[in-house]
Write a structure and sequence with these properties.
heterodimer; A: alpha+beta; Ribosomal Protein S8, Chain: A, domain 1; 2 domains; about 20% strand; elongated; B: alpha/beta; Rossmann fold; about 10% strand
């Protein structure tokens, strides 16, 4: 259950369909973004924090978008959740902080969200780390070989 | 000392790398930063590039006639990871509420930061500045006015945090017993030589410098939204410039639109559906709070979109009218529960006939609201205990 709906439940605040005027325009915006992606290969990002949503509207929107085939989780400065919705190419990206509070929520219309790609800088760093690990193993092997040959000589 | 210098000279990108923060984490940080600064998501790559090269600016934070609510708002914002990174990327050299040092050691820290970063540090001020009697508010025996003028002279820019620093706030409210003024007013008066009794030593120091023509960013609100405070600091950190400001010196990214224009209850206003009391059917159905005194139409702030308590809600969503706390003279605005004006036209009918007509009606109502607010301010009378008992 999302934070907003639990708050609504605890305070018995009534939200009705009358309030959900932002959902339909947002769905149209997403439809246009899909067209643009297919025709012009252009990505679009919608920042849900910049839109004045009424209580329950975000939940309604997310319910309509649903969940698709892909669900990925990041652990980078707190968790992040990347979901492909049931509409392929429409992704919901939610970043949390260390205390599991939402710090940003975007809808990305793209073939693959950038945040999922491995970053060149991180790959370079990983390559260096792997190289150090191999050097370490090589040194361990050399030490072991030396010890074995010393023991052979004793025998 | 050398180590400290090296740490200060590191860019944010270098500092993050040394802490083992991955590029992917940095991109997440930039996505949250763009959202926080109310910038379009398409700016994320530009933010990443600029932030990587950003160097730690020195920040001196002065608190004058204030309630510490602005600092509370900022430090209790709870978005620990992101805000910590931002605070790791500035050098907060003086903040008398937060720093460990006290007395002479604290003042030495301020003077050292000023000397080391003369002309380059950011000065953040919360609280208004009393001018009637310098003894009303002092820090380490230095009057607020003297400390402000000394420190402002070497600042690259001044950020007035909270309505008290931005517009005088509650201390400035009628009858303003301490002669409290905002940062902007003090600088304007100093520029016009309207302040008496200020020694020349208090406005210049060894390095010279003047407080006139300093860029001032006002971040009003009682208190301001935490991410708006950090958003302004981050903007400076990211781009090295001050953000685009409105006529009152407020960043347009956060104060560019009225609460009314961004309110999710706005469609009820357009339909002419208003709550008349706090417990009537309209209130229960979430109708517009205009008639209950909502100052949303004349108030510019980001509450309706950024919201409070980590995006949980904002006053109108909780069923209370906007008080207009980010506007000048909000305390003297004629009563929190008095409507700005009662619509004199049938808004739904007008909207049906012509969109242009509805827009014109909106403009007319806006002008009426502003006029009523201004009149209330002029005619302000003191509320007595008797008045309160009558209610």
């Amino acid at each position: 259950m999302s934070i907003s709906s639990s708050v609504l439940d605890s305070f018995n605040i009534q939200s009705s369909n009358e309030l959900t005027w932002n959902v339909l325009p947002l769905l149209h915006q997403i439809k246009h973004a899909i067209d643009n992606l297919l025709e012009n290969n252009v990505n679009e990002v919608i920042d849900l924090r910049s839109i004045p949503l009424a209580p329950g509207e975000e939940d309604n929107l997310l319910k309509i978008l649903g969940q698709g085939e892909v669900k990925a989780q990041l652990n980078a400065l707190g968790p992040s959740e990347i979901l492909e919705t049931q509409f392929n190419g429409v992704w919901l990206i939610t970043h949390y902080n260390d205390e599991n509070e939402i710090v940003s929520r975007h809808i990305e219309v793209t073939f693959m969200p950038d945040i999922l790609f491995s970053q060149k800088q991180d790959i370079e760093s990983a390559c260096q780390r792997l190289n150090e690990k191999l050097q370490e193993k090589l040194q361990e092997k050399q030490v072991n070989n030396t010890t074995d040959s010393e023991q052979d000589e004793i025998h | 000392m050398i180590e400290k210098k090296n740490l200060k000279d590191r860019t944010l990108g270098e500092a993050m790398q040394s802490q083992g923060i991955s590029r992917r984490s940095f991109l997440k940080f930039c996505a949250a930063t763009a959202s926080m600064m109310a910038l379009p998501p398409s700016m994320i790559p530009a933010i990443a590039e600029a932030l990587e090269k950003a160097r730690k600016p020195s920040v001196i934070w002065l608190s004058f006639q204030e309630c510490t609510g602005c600092t509370e708002s900022l430090t209790r914002s709870h978005t620990a990871t992101i805000e910590n990174l931002i605070f790791d990327s500035i050098s907060l050299d003086y903040h008398h509420t937060l720093q460990a040092a006290s007395g002479e050691a604290a003042e030495e820290a301020r003077e050292a930061a000023m000397k080391e970063n003369w002309g380059e540090y950011l000065l953040v001020v919360d609280g208004s500045i009393p001018t009637k009697d310098m003894g009303y508010s002092t820090i380490a025996g230095i009057s607020n006015l003297d400390m402000f003028l000394q420190t402002a002279a070497g600042a690259a820019a001044i950020i007035s945090v909270g309505t008290c620093a931005a517009f005088g706030g509650i201390p400035h409210a009628h009858p303003n017993p301490t002669g409290a003024y905002s940062v902007y007013d003090i600088i304007k008066m100093y520029g016009n030589s309207e302040l008496d009794g200020i020694s020349s030593a208090s406005i210049t120091n060894n390095s010279g410098g003047s407080v006139i023509n300093k860029p001032i960013i006002t971040v009003p609100g009682c208190p301001p939204i935490p991410v708006v405070i950090t958003g302004v600091l981050t903007h400076y950190l990211t781009f090295g410039t001050i953000p685009e400001l409105d006529h009152l010196g407020r960043p347009k990214a956060f104060y560019g639109q009225s609460i009314h224009d961004r309110c999710y209850r706005r469609p009820f206003y357009d339909k002419g559906l208003f709550a008349e009391t706090f417990d009537d059917e309209g209130a229960k159905k979430g109708w517009c709070l205009y008639k209950l005194g909502c100052k949303g139409p004349t108030t510019y702030n980001a509450c309706a979109t950024t919201k409070w308590n980590n995006g949980t809600s904002f006053p109108i969503e909780s069923g209370h009218p906007c008080l207009g706390c980010s506007e000048p003279h909000f305390w003297d605005g004629g009563g929190f529960y008095k409507a700005l004006s009662i619509p004199t036209i049938d808004i739904p009918t007008t909207a049906v006939y012509a969109a242009a007509g509805a827009a014109a009606a909106g403009v007319a109502l806006g002008a009426l609201n502003k006029s009523k607010k201004s009149n209330a301010d002029k005619k302000h009378t003191n509320t007595t205990i008797d008045d309160l008992e009558k209610e």
